[in-house]
Protein: DNA replication and repair protein RecF
Amino acid sequence: MMVRTLELEGFRNYRSFSADFAPGVNVIYGENAQGKTNLLEAVRYLSGAPSHRARSEGELIGFDVPSARICAQLESRGRDFKVEVQLTRGRRRRMTSNGVRLKTAGELSERLHTVLFCPEDLMLIRAGSAERRRFLDQSLCQLRPRYAAALAEYNRLHEHKRRILRDWEEKPSLLDLLPEFNDRMARCGAILIHYRAHFIRKLAQFAAPIHAEFSGEREKMTLSYETVKTVEDPLIPTREIYPRLLEHQESHRRAELESRTCLSGPHKDDLLVSIDGRSAKQFASQGQTRTAALSLKLAERELHQEDMGEWPVLLLDDVLSELDQRRRDFVLRRIRGGQVFITCCEEEALDGLGEGRTFHIRAGALA
Ligand code: ATP
Ligand code: MG
Structure:
């Protein structure tokens, strides 16, 4: 998969931008606040993933313009696509592929998979479980449309159940709806757990050797799926997960009513990252946190490659400057193959990476 060309109009600080990218490494350099991250964000957006920075789509539109356009020529599975997204304030976005209207972000992600590593990803190790669920969800939504559909349905049901639990004392009749919601959430939840468990098992197989080499063979990274006691072995078939989720909900019924919060289900799950058997969240140093987060993303990239038979596009925002020379060399070796976008402040001499291009960005334009 690759982005051959990109045009931006009114996207963040880009008024009118157009570039042809290399199939290999594309280095995007420039001073602070010129638009390097914005460019990566535009590519990421084309893969159907929600922005890692914007809370609403309106934020992606230039401050003093009414609309934004992102247009790209993509190559995916041996075919070319012209994908276009139009964002207008106060309106629904409009997306097309080769002129045909697309309805969902999932349809975008069928054409372009991206793996993003950005400074905020340190939170993947450090923050609460929500960050790690977001990582699992975003990666799985790109790989498995069935997961994306189950997740959307689960989130909808969860929101309804949350409202029932919030309001039941004022409106006791709402409690009649709970069994139906619990059943449907358990059905969707079983699908989520099934996919997450297999994904994490595979991710762990890729992450272990990456992290070992990254840390100079000094550390051992392990990953496991914590299902907050709903199922002990999440690798069992979906039909066996479903009754266990129901049972768990049932045993938490009183606690949920009393706390007025939804305590049972895969929206509580976590991806446990350990280094040498200890929780990275609790014990990793700054450097270990960075290395662990990057190992996870490089493992995600290799997993996507194995799954699809094609490299996803890798977006590395501000990564190299923070690494020592040995780790830098490791990353640059490991990212060979596939298309990569790397941002940095100085024009980098990235030796040995094969054919690539460099782009100097200044104030939302090519310098
Ligand atoms: P750094 O090296 O500091 O990370 P950068 O080149 O990655 O810098 P960006 O994050 O891409 O910088 O942001 C470039 C500029 O775009 C910033 O000054 C930011 O305020 C501006 N910007 C962000 N959103 C919008 C928007 N919606 N409209 C116009 N400008 C915006
Ligand atoms: Mg930046």
